[in-house]
Amino acid sequence: MKLALVQLNYHIGNYEENSNKIIAHIEEAKERGVDLVAFSELAVCGYPPLDLLTRQEFVEGAIAAIHDIAKHCQGIAAVVGGPSINPQARGKQLHNSAYFLADGVIKETIHKTLLPNYDVFDEYRYFQANQDFRVVNYKGKRIALTICEDLWDDQPTAAAFARNNLYTLSPMQKLAALKPDFMVNIAASPFSYHQENVRKQVVCKKAAEYRVPVAYVNQIGANTELIFDGGSMMVNSEGNITHRVPTFKEGVVDVETDSIDDVASDNLFETNPINLIHDGIVLGIRDYFRKSGLQKAVIGLSGGVDSAVTAALAVKALGAENVHGILLPSQYSSGHSVSDAEDLAANLGMGTHTVAIKDVYQSVENAMAPVFDGREADVTEENIQARIRGLLLMAYSNKFGHILLNTSNKSEAAVGYGTLYGDMNGGLSVLGDVYKTDVFKLARYLNKDGEMVPENTIVKPPSAELRPDQKDSDSLPDYDVLDKVLFRYIELNRSPQSIVEEGFDKEVVRKAVRLVNFNEYKRFQTAPILRVSGKAFGVGRRMPLVAKY
Amino acid sequence: MKLALVQLNYHIGNYEENSNKIIAHIEEAKERGVDLVAFSELAVCGYPPLDLLTRQEFVEGAIAAIHDIAKHCQGIAAVVGGPSINPQARGKQLHNSAYFLADGVIKETIHKTLLPNYDVFDEYRYFQANQDFRVVNYKGKRIALTICEDLWDDQPTAAAFARNNLYTLSPMQKLAALKPDFMVNIAASPFSYHQENVRKQVVCKKAAEYRVPVAYVNQIGANTELIFDGGSMMVNSEGNITHRVPTFKEGVVDVETDSIDDVASDNLFETNPINLIHDGIVLGIRDYFRKSGLQKAVIGLSGGVDSAVTAALAVKALGAENVHGILLPSQYSSGHSVSDAEDLAANLGMGTHTVAIKDVYQSVENAMAPVFDGREADVTEENIQARIRGLLLMAYSNKFGHILLNTSNKSEAAVGYGTLYGDMNGGLSVLGDVYKTDVFKLARYLNKDGEMVPENTIVKPPSAELRPDQKDSDSLPDYDVLDKVLFRYIELNRSPQSIVEEGFDKEVVRKAVRLVNFNEYKRFQTAPILRVSGKAFGVGRRMPLVAKY
Question: Which residues are involved in binding deamido-NAD(+) (chains A, B) (predicted)?
Answer without folding.
Answer: 383, 412, 522
